[in-house]
Design brief:
Arp2/3 complex 21 kDa subunit ARPC3; 275 residues
Length: 275
């Protein structure tokens, strides 16, 4: 990833060419979204806009042929989040942007997305169920928000590796939400738990900013205490593999992040020099 980022940032033409080529590669199209975000972070919104517009050309052709709206929303989302991070320097703003953008964009393209899924399942000789597909809309928003956050993390890590070694690690370790944002998200989570029938499917999306903040705290704690990164790996594997308990894990991490938002846990844990 670092080598690709270094090549793309050599010039404007390198960035445009790399983004347009990678977006056409099977299973690697997501690299173009990283490049767009990286250009925005490094050179600003005007330069990123140019790369975005050129990359949208092949993506638009693909949408015309296959009617898959997700690549367009991912490109626009990565551009928006990178612009927000460059402008504000706040990961809290970025995480809230990911939540809002994913929810709004999925609802906006729901018709195209449903048609694409039905057509795909029909080609696979499977019987599509329209009601079940519509019910999964909040989960589509959740996974899109996760993808956008991962893309921006990769772009920021690449920028740091090239121009500010160690900067991304420090930035992620200090990620913390404000008490007000933590309280609002906590209320949203409680509403999802209390009214599970209409709102329960939105629970993972509302927990996401808190979960990312909690992961930043976990990484910081493991580094502060010289703990093996295996503990962090176990946590990530649990989130991926233990689908039956995923909501419980998400809520637990959200509670940790809310506690950190109100009490600033980092200040209450002794540093190496004071232990």
């Amino acid at each position: 990833m670092r080598a690709l980022a270094e090549f793309a940032l050599r010039s404007r033409l390198h960035a445009i060419g790399t983004s347009m080529v990678t977006v056409l590669l099977p299973l690697l199209g997501w690299l173009s979204t990283v490049i767009v975000a990286l250009v925005v972070l490094r050179y600003g919104i005007p330069a990123g806009s140019l790369v975005l517009l050129w990359t949208l050309l092949p993506v638009g052709v693909a949408f015309h042929l296959f009617a898959d709206p997700l690549p367009i929303t991912m490109l626009l989302g990565s551009f928006l989040m990178a612009a927000m991070l460059r402008h504000t320097g706040s990961w809290q703003v970025v995480l809230l942007t990911a939540l809002l953008y994913a929810g709004v964009s999925i609802l906006a393209i729901k018709g195209f997305l449903v048609d694409f899924i039905i057509d795909f399942l029909t080609r696979m000789e499977l019987q599509p169920n329209l009601e079940e597909i519509l019910q999964l809309t909040p989960l589509f928003a959740f996974w899109q928000a996760i993808a956008l956050i991962i893309i921006l993390l990769l772009a920021r890590w690449s920028q740091s590796a090239l121009y500010n070694p160690g900067g991304f690690r420090k930035e992620f370790h200090q990620l913390r939400l404000s008490p007000g944002v933590g309280a609002v998200l906590g209320v949203a989570i409680l509403a999802c738990l209390a009214f599970s029938e209409p709102w329960g499917w939105w629970l993972p999306l509302f927990t996401l900013p808190l979960v990312v903040a909690a992961l930043g705290l976990v990484h910081w704690y493991c580094d502060r205490k010289n703990l093996s990164q295996g503990w962090v790996a176990v946590l990530y594997l649990s989130l991926i593999l233990l689908s039956e308990y995923r909501n419980l894990l998400l809520v637990s991490l959200a509670a940790l992040a809310m506690a950190d938002a109100w009490f600033n846990i980092r200040l209450r844990i002794p540093t190496r020099g004071t232990e």
